[in-house]
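Researcher: I'm comparing several assemblies side by side, and this is the next one on my list. It has 1225 residues spread over three chains. Same procedure as the others: predict the full complex and return the structure.
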Amino acid sequence: MYDISSLYQATSVADAIRALQADPKAILIAGGTDVLIKIREGRLPGCSLVSIHELGEELRGIALAPNGDVEIGPLSTFRDVTFSPIIRQHIPVLGEATDMAGGPQLRAVGTIGGNVCNGVTSADSASTLMALDAVLVVRGPAGERRVPISQWYKGVHQVNLAHDELLVKLLIPRENYDGFTGHYIKYAQRSAMDIATLGVSCLVKLSEDKRLVRQVKLAFGVANPVPMRSPAAEAAVAGLPLEEAIAQIGKAALQDVNPRTSWRASREFRLQLVEELSGRALREAARKGGAAV
Amino acid sequence: MEVGRSIPRVDAADKVTGRAKYTDDLCPRPVLEAKILHSTIANGWVKSMDISAAQALPGVVKVLTCFDVPDIQYPTPGHPWSVEKGHQDVADRKLLSRRVRIYGEDIAAVVAEDEITALHALELIRVEYEEYPVLLEPGQAMAPGAGAIHEEHPDNILAKMDLRTPITDPRYETVEQVLDDPQLYQFRGHYETQQVQHCHIENPVSFAWMEAGRIHVVTSTQIPHIVRRVIGQALGIGWGRIQVIKPYIGGGFGNKQEVLYEPLNAWLTTQVGGRCVRLDVSREETFQNTRSRHPISFDVAAAVDREGNLMARSCTAISNQGGYASHGNAIVANAITGFRQLYPDRVGHHSTACTVYTNRPAPGAMRGYGIPQCNFAAECMMEDIAQKFGFDPIELRLKNIMPLGYVDPFNGITCHSTGLRECILKGAEAMGWDELRAQYRNQTGPVRRGVGMACFSYKTGVYPISLETASARMVLNQDGTVQLQLGATEIGQGGDTVFSQMAAEAIGIPTEDVHIVSFQDTDTAPFDTGAYASRQTYVTGKAIKKVGLEFRQKLLSYAAELFPQAGELTIDGRAIADETGERLISLEDLATTAFYSLEHSVHITAEGTNHCKENTFAFGCCFAQVEVDIPVGKVKVLRLINVHDSGRLINPSLAAAQVHGGMSMGMGYALSEEMKLDPKTGRLLNGNLLDYKMPTSMDHPDLTALFVETDDPSGPFGNKALGEPPAIPVAPAIRNAVLNATGVAVNTLPLSPQKLVEEFTKGGLIGHV
Amino acid sequence: MMEILRCTVNNKPVEVGIDPRESLADTLRQRLGLTSVKKGCEVGECGACTVLVDGVAIDSCIYLSVWAQGKTILTVEGLRDENGELTPLQKAFVEEAAVQCGFCTPGIIMSAVEIVGSGKLYTREELRKLISGHLCRCTGYENILNAVERAVQEAHKFVGKEE
């Protein structure tokens, strides 16, 4: 039994927005894997919930737009993303990342929208969405606006979303994935049912002969209070021969990251992981792109 | 032969269909819900409490605090009671405590109509504390002026021991002289183990009510008869006024060999007019407020001659007892004893142990009872000695392991049978030890492989340290089948199945004709102290054998009445047969006749006690192959092989399953599990199954369980301890494999990634940071 | 505060009054008597409460009952073959000694129902991942994997799908 004072099941996105407007304290619940756990921990005593769990028709599903952009409904579960033929064909790295969250039962319920909206740095989809420069489409009483993911995270548990707004779509513009291959490393103590000690997502575009790095997009989770890109690393390796890029990218990334010491892991340990795993992620991404490394 | 068959578990079908009932499945609903208020400090006193708002909340039935409970201190460990005062368990806790000794101390309880109301009521209780500094480590607690956690122990030392074996070489007077002898190789080491938890998947839930002036408690426990006794002691009432029922339980591993919340729940029902109260202990409470494995530190020394003979060793062990005595000094005493027994030193041995109260969550019994800790020290030490002085690690062990006929100089436990040498050789062969050790020499690069091993000895049951007693009852059914009733408990290990096989073997009937009563009800179940110390197949097994033979004799005697001319009779499957093998009467007909005969009606039963005054050693070893990713501190266990000498196996497939589980627990102990406390507040930081890293299916390699079957002359069916041992040797085997791979000796558990990165950096394998 | 939940549970239509604050695990255990649904953590970390909702294994402790409206739910109590006997999957658990304390068993079996029901073959490593949402302290997963592997192979013989 959960300590909930009221639960409203929205019948549409518009209805959910209305419900949120009507109750300034209401909390939005989608898959429930974060909110219900917070309730049980006593962090939201007597909360009122607006559930969008059953808005699958409007908010769940993955499509390829005519212009090649990939559109992901926020109620798509981790499992939906992983097994989507569109994701598998065009952005497999994103499906690989969502396949590392929690365990199978959680992935069948937890949503990619929730993963982005809870504003957690360890979220398994977040670093890859950062690397992909995803665009988040939110809808509120005044209509829709598009937020580049670089402007999304405002702080721990804080995102660029007003109380009466809903994330209605995650958009991956074609130019952000086309020609890139990617690799996500979730470093955690266990191989399942764990939170990342560090998450590294690397996208790479190689030269025709697969020897040079044209462009790299490197993003981290848990290297900072919010998911982040490493512009220093990306600049440092652009144009370099691949092996050289692999050797240098980790050190370069250290200029940008700022992990903290917590009881889970020390700053020093996370820095070591940043340095080591950046190169590994680039190597794997390049390998997937056809490089012989 | 019924013993030795790999039959499926007698409870398996019920467990795969959901028919098997566990405590909460039996709880009537609606039921009153109890919730406990836990302190938000780790050391101090509750000065005052304001419960008025909580009491006034609609739906709250009763709020009870540490100011209301009976002024009785009681003991909680699942030991047999001792009639000698000096051997009784430490009685150091009350139902709810004003004196706060751990973070999350039980200081009040709310009984309400539903769980949410109970939780709301907890929020409304105002507490005023007097706070003392938090003492989490023995060094802090033993420091002058630290302040007593229990007033009975002003220096916070619960108990100390100092044991010296007789010196066998006239050239020396003390062990220390041997250890300092320059003619011998000298070794000194320091090893530490961490606090971990059992992680049975069912939390320790109970419900209690009153009926006919008695208190009835259904609970998830390994030790129903002991729970009954402790409830009586805690409430100050006659033990006969309590009935404890133990249904199927979702694992225990020693945590439920402790009387946890049953006394509080029994008392709560008395405070609400005997209405049924459910006390559901959450996972977080299970972590913070129930038992765990003791962290123990070991300072060890050894003197070894040039041939690799251990001449003397010493061991100083300090055990962190947390806020309550629980099993107390018994665990570290077992640890130093186990340390000594595996390799009997040729000249002498000196060990000391000390158990210290701190403000940690109190550790208690956990699978292996101190031996996984001492085995880590003993087997790291053997590996380090081998490495330092150039011995082959397996040869070194084989030269020094306990020989057949060994008699412990203090407790007299005798090695009646040993297959340890064969276990080690079998494990080495299965691992391909020699080839891999050769292959792994001179590795370079960031990812390296290694193999390591460790062996152990483990006694069977608690004799002569404590009483060993068990009873069995067999009742003939009208169809010739047998009801088997025991106080020994099924806790997942397969007890019911092997008990049924043993009874069938003793009587001479098929196991399928033995119906075991799985649930223990202290009103009707024969007395047995319960599941712990790997004792039941041995101690209860002897009771089953004794009573089974008596029961068999009663069947044969009754048959002899029916067939006076037949001569020597025997039981052949489901019938009575004569000397020629001719079947004279089916057991079904015999039973029906015995029940309803107009000449001689008798209800054939047998019941008896086995007061066990024997013990014996089980042995085994673990071989581990690992791959170490040095720059990120990751150990991947590629292969894990355990080889056990547990005497004759009653059910080989269940024995293997039991070994798998122990290996898994040992792997978590080696690599990832650790209860982490906030040093400032004493609060447990990772008290949930996400942050506490017990291994998932993806973290396991395939597990190989092998056996060397000896026939132990003291065992009822040639069998010895099996339940706990598989968890023992895994951690040192993995640590030694990491040493083999990297050359870095990690001397504290667990070998967690961050620690490994730090150690590899210190060892020069990682160049920066 | 009561609401009516209408859904299909173990192949039978069910209409039951629920408190909207309830988890599906609460409803199944306490209102429908389906006590195979175990609670070990109540936060989706142990998998003991796993049931199938519309054929998909989920942790019923972190699933609100109101979301089950109109859906199809399966628990271990709903498993049996045509003769009312154990299913091949359940038999595999019994015969492979995959059961010990039995507390995680019903949940794992439900995940395995989904795995086996796919009709596909999986490698041992894939199976490790597919059951990784279940914690078991008794078995080291060894015999559980043996049982699931066996059931997967048996099912594949009948309805084999490649991929």
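Model: For your comparison table: Chain C touches chain B through 52 residues (CB under 8 Å).
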